[in-house]
Predict the structure.
Amino acid sequence: MRFGFLVAVMLLGGFVRLAAAAPDFVLTARAERADALYAENEAVTFVIALTHGGRPVEGAEVDWKISKDGMPPVKSGRAVLKKGEARITGSLAEPGFLQCRAEYAGATESGGKPLVALAGAGISPRKIRPSLPPPDDFDGFWAAQKAALAKVPAKIRLTPVSGQDASLAVFDAQADCVDGVPVSGYLVRPADAKPKSLPAILTVHGAGVGSARIEAAANWARQGVLALDINAHGLPNGQPQAWYDSLREGELKDYRIRGRTARATIYFRGMFLRVLRALDVLAAQPEWDGRTLVIQGSSQGGAQAIAGAALDPRVTFFVAGVPAMCDHSALLAGRAAGWPKMVPADAAGKPHARALEAARYYDMVNFASRIRRPGFFTVGFIDTTCPPTSVYAAFNALHGPGRIFDDLTAGHTNTPEAMKRMRQAIRRHIQDQGKLFYMSK
């Protein structure tokens, strides 16, 4: 794959967005173009600006780097600001992303670190392709995992949870799953729901260790949706936070890379199968309309949403915010892989062979290629945890109709605008399905 990189510095004026701030000082960076989208080999200009007390800082020296979404090659330099600004220009000869990092050492944030600002620009991102094709037996492997799940009776247990909103029926939901680790969550629905009256949604969690969240499900239930929120690890719900913290630092520490050298032992096998069993729980409820079934999650939850949509044909729509686990083999293409960076590399940059092969069975680019249903993604243009190059590699692999929100100034987070758009996408899907009775506008 051909890669071209040209960098120049120009001193010009303009306005600023995207801030990282210390008291009185604000350092910002942004792509000059409003949508931050460019073509291959097109000049990409980043605007770096520094203010102090709201006024441009004249003559300040700012160090900058432009990289291939955090990967080599990296070009760097130092700009002397004129009227508080400098323009840095680069180009990329292939579909991908450029990342600009600016650093000002003349002021510090809390902790004594220099001020830092990031900006990102997409280079024909709709053309980004996966770094490797799916394994030949990808479908066969997951068919075998689903068959193993089918042999485990669900034994769904719903225990009423008291002290909640009287308009809602709230249950602690448990269901048996593979490897003796259950689905564990909170199921919430309108208390007066009639049989076959409700669309359903499963909400899944990002990285970490904790309880399922009643409110996450209740927010949807108040809008006339049968909702289930599950924790990622099949843990008992409602325990003291210290209990979850001890697991995070003990038994579940580094779960993200556990068993990563063999496809059958990777930790996420059980997590993804719990998603499928959670969908069984929703589908077993008499209030489900039998028609509308949505999965929503962000980061690790975005990966679960994609995997669930790929593996369960009952899913009618999925939402993946800044999804993790995209393009594990990206290193082979000189690109940045998404969290959890499952494939380590040696000192020479060569990926671990067994980890690379195993990771392909858990790569969202491969799951996405199996999805025929509609979906919605968000991507942060300055996300260094789930880099935008990796997210677009998965989005572009979709076979169903997909939409993506380019969150230009977002790192690895759900910004208010991204959250609004995800909710709107779900509402629109439910409305299109014709089964929304209580939805607020």
Q: What stands out?
A: The radius of gyration is 23 Å. The chain is about 20% helix and 30% strand. The longest helix spans residues 416-433. Residues 1-22, 435-441 have pLDDT under 50 and may be disordered.
